[in-house]
């Protein structure tokens, strides 16, 4: 019996598998034991070939050479990863290796990573699949006891391959077409274009919004306030005359209590976290970007092994996980979680449909704690924040509902109806997990609630005042990273589509995937299509113009939803992959023709008076996520210079973040708050800061170094991350 070769996606995961499989001999790019050899990719080792591999003429970007439609797509080894590819290939071909276990991430892209390596290595050996949702020793052992035949995932691989090839054909053709046509660095793709279009459309809505005046009327009586309502229970009055008439009619009049309703209400805990919901909450509560949250989650899953697989789109667990809940609860019975965890353990766990539902679990269940008790003291602040969110949500779903008594009082004042609402808490239930109000999205009932005295129907109320308040309707809010994630997940709520299309978008989970949305947003920033003002996301002139140039269908979320439906059918063996690829080639041809025929012109409206030191053309001023820079307008030159950067240093006057401007001795800190005038030379500021907080700084530096070490470990997994991000982010 030969040895089993296990292929992981990253070195850190490979080391975890090697430990469990007793592979103690460290070699160059792999670890070996008596029965198993464990090796790893570095993310992708193999990718689709660039256009110039098919034809030398594609080395030059010329619009007349488009579309590029290779008959058969070729695979190439990524140059930076060639050494590791050769290690993996040689291991696969070793005579004593009789079987290969695919242990890459359990999902569509993970399947692609492994199959492309095996395909490129031209190996024909028996294949099995490890499919697990957490990296604990227990989960790994259980997974190896239940290895699945790789043939079960053949269709998943075909779907992944179709996605990659379609994104190559559509993405590279439209990107080259737009870039050549307008001589500007422009990229487009089905996910990034649809996302950018939503941001641009929202900006247009805000620009065209005309505020309307409206009035609300409040009546005060002893101890509480009532609000006027019409027959349909609306409080807004858009005609001033009508508001004045109600005021005249009700002033100095007595109130008559016509109805007192008391209803017992129950509110169940929100569902468990999937990645998008976690990214949303982390952005709302802590201001973390989507990319940052995914990176933190990845560390908690891979390095600390205290949370389960992050790239999930499910908010439920399956019935087979229920038996493991007591062990998971014991693992988190520490610190502030101990009381609630013990309460659940001491009673019978109610595995209700609110969090246990097999039909709502696809590749992976919701993000929950593992059975491993971690050392929370080792976590950085940001890691503690994310861990805290997941643990509290996990506890909340197993606790009783929040119960309260809602009282609604209807009062007639000279035949006009006024209403007051009040809540009395009967049982805090799951809400006792949350000690901070910020951690909970505000509930409508609670927002309008007030303390009400005991009142009966038929009581007379002395009204002390009736007043109207003039307000204005508000324009739609700009997106922040949290709300943009919501829009990507449920675009049917943000763009006008018919009922059938809305259903399609709902079934496919929106645009992008939970694993790639953060990267898509990051790419829009990196390409200078969007910028930030505080937390708000605004489109740049470049972003707005790109959306004007991009063909209509490509910027519709419906197109990417249709793709996902087709890919889902392929993954289930219900659609021929070849047909899908041919459809994509035809579509790419149509897109290129649209661009060629277009009479649109691209204009740089952010030109500076400074010339590029490399090519002499005028530079463009752009805002990145991290500061301001000058970029050469010539895409082939690509010269960049930093002008200023946002720092984590805080203004001593208003506590807002400081911006660092200039170079060398001339560097100054400037407050980002436009209402604050703080400016100080960097050398003076740093001296003052260092002298005051020497001990604190040392601690901060140590924490930062530890964080960088973890990031470095993560980067080992994918040293060409940025390079791949530019090409792959929009593919998924």
TrEMBL record:
Origin, by domain of life? Bacteria
Boundaries of every Toprim domain copy? 3-136
Spell out the reaction equation it catalyses: ATP-independent breakage of single-stranded DNA, followed by passage and rejoining
Q: What is its EC number?
A: 5.6.2.1
Q: Where does Mg(2+) bind?
A: 9, 105
Keyword Isomerase listed? The answer is yes
Extract the CDD domains matched here.
TOP1Ac, TOPRIM_TopoIA_TopoIII
Can you tell me which residues form the catalytic site?
A: 309 (o-(5'-phospho-dna)-tyrosine intermediate)
- Does tRNA-binding count among this protein's keywords? no
Which residues are tagged with the site Interaction with DNA? 61, 168, 176, 311
State the NCBIfam families in the record. Answer: PRK07726.1, topB
User: Its biological function?
Assistant: Releases the supercoiling and torsional tension of DNA, which is introduced during the DNA replication and transcription, by transiently cleaving and rejoining one strand of the DNA duplex. Introduces a single-strand break via transesterification at a target site in duplex DNA. The scissile phosphodiester is attacked by the catalytic tyrosine of the enzyme, resulting in the formation of a DNA-(5'-phosphotyrosyl)-enzyme intermediate and the expulsion of a 3'-OH DNA strand. The free DNA strand then undergoes passage around the unbroken strand, thus removing DNA supercoils.
According to its UniProt record, which protein family does this protein belong to? Answer: Belongs to the type IA topoisomerase family.
Alphabetized HAMAP family for the sequence: Topoisom_3_prok
Descriptive protein name: DNA topoisomerase 3
Classification from the root reads: Bacteria, Bacillati, Bacillota, Clostridia, Eubacteriales
């Amino acid at each position: 019996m030969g040895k089993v070769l296990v292929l992981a996606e990253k070195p850190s995961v490979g080391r975890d598998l090697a430990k469990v499989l007793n592979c103690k001999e460290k070699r160059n790019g792999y670890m070996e034991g008596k029965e198993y050899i464990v090796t790893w990719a570095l993310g992708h080792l193999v990718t689709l070939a660039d256009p110039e591999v098919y034809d030398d003429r594609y080395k030059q970007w010329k619009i007349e050479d488009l579309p590029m439609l290779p008959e058969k797509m070729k695979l190439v080894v990524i140059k930076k990863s060639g050494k590791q590819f050769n290690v993996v290939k040689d291991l696969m071909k070793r005579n004593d290796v009789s079987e290969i276990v695919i242990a890459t991430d359990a999902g569509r892209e993970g399947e692609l990573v492994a199959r492309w390596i095996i395909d490129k290595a031209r190996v024909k050996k028996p294949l099995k699949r490890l499919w697990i949702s957490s990296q604990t020793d227990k989960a790994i052992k259980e997974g190896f006891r239940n290895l699945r035949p790789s043939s079960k995932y053949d269709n998943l691989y075909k779907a992944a391959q179709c996605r990659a090839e379609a994104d190559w054909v559509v993405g590279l053709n439209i990107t080259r077409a737009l870039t050549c046509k307008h001589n500007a660095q422009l990229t487009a793709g089905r996910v990034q274009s649809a996302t950018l279009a939503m941001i641009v459309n929202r900006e247009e809505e805000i620009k065209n919004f005309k505020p309307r005046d409206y009035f609300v009327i409040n009546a005060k009586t002893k101890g509480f306030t009532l609000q006027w309502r019409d027959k349909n229970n609306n409080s807004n009055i858009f005609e001033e005359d009508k508001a004045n008439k109600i005021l005249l009619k009700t002033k100095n009049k007595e109130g008559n209590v016509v109805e007192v309703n008391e209803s017992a209400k129950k509110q169940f805990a929100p569902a468990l976290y999937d990645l998008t919901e976690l990214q949303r909450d982390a952005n709302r509560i802590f201001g973390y970007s989507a990319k940052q949250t995914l990176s933190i989650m990845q560390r908690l899953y891979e390095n600390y092994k205290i949370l389960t697989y992050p790239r999930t789109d499910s908010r439920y667990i399956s019935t087979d996980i229920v038996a493991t809940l007591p062990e998971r609860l014991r693992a988190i019975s520490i610190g502030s979680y101990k009381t609630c965890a013990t309460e659940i353990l001491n009673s019978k766990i109610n595995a209700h449909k609110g969090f246990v539902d097999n039909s709502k679990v696809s590749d992976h269940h919701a993000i929950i704690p593992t059975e491993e008790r971690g050392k929370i003291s080792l976590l950085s602040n940001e890691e503690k924040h994310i861990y805290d969110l997941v643990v509290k949500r996990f506890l909340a779903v197993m606790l009783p509902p929040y119960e309260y008594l809602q009282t609604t009082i209807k009062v007639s004042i000279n035949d006009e109806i006024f209403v007051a609402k009040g809540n009395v808490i009967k049982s805090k239930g799951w809400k006792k997990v949350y000690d901070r109000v910020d951690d909970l999205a505000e509930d409508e009932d609670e927002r309008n609630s007030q303390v009400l005295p005991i009142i009966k129907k038929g009581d007379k109320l002395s009204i002390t005042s009736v007043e109207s308040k003039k307000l204005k309707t508000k324009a739609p809010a700009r997106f922040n990273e949290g709300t943009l994630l919501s829009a990507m997940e449920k675009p049917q709520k943000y763009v006008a589509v018919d009922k059938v299309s809305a259903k399609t978008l709902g079934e496919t989970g929106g645009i992008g995937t939970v694993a790639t949305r953060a990267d898509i947003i990051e790419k829009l920033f990196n390409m200078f299509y969007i910028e930030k003002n505080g937390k708000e996301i605004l489109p740049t002139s470049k972003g707005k113009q790109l959306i004007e140039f991009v063909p209509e269908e490509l910027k519709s979320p419906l197109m990417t939803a249709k793709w996902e439906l087709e890919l889902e059918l392929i993954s289930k063996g219900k659609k021929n992959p070849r047909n899908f690829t041919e459809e994509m080639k035809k579509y790419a041809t149509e897109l290129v023709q649209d661009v060629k025929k277009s009479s649109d012109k691209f204009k740089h409206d952010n030109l500076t008076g400074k010339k590029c030191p490399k090519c002499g053309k005028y530079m463009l001023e752009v805002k990145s996520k991290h500061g301001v820079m000058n970029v050469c307008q010539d895409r082939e030159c690509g010269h960049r210079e930093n002008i200023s950067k946002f720092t984590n240093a805080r203004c001593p006057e208003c506590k807002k973040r400081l911006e660092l401007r200039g170079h060398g001795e001339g560097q100054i800190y400037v407050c980002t708050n436009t209402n604050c005038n703080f400016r100080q030379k960097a050398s003076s500021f740093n001296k003052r800061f260092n002298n005051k907080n020497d001990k604190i700084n040392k601690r901060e530096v140590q924490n930062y170094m530890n964080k960088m070490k973890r990031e470095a470990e993560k980067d080992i997994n994918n040293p060409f991350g940025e390079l791949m991000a530019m090409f792959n982010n929009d593919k998924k």
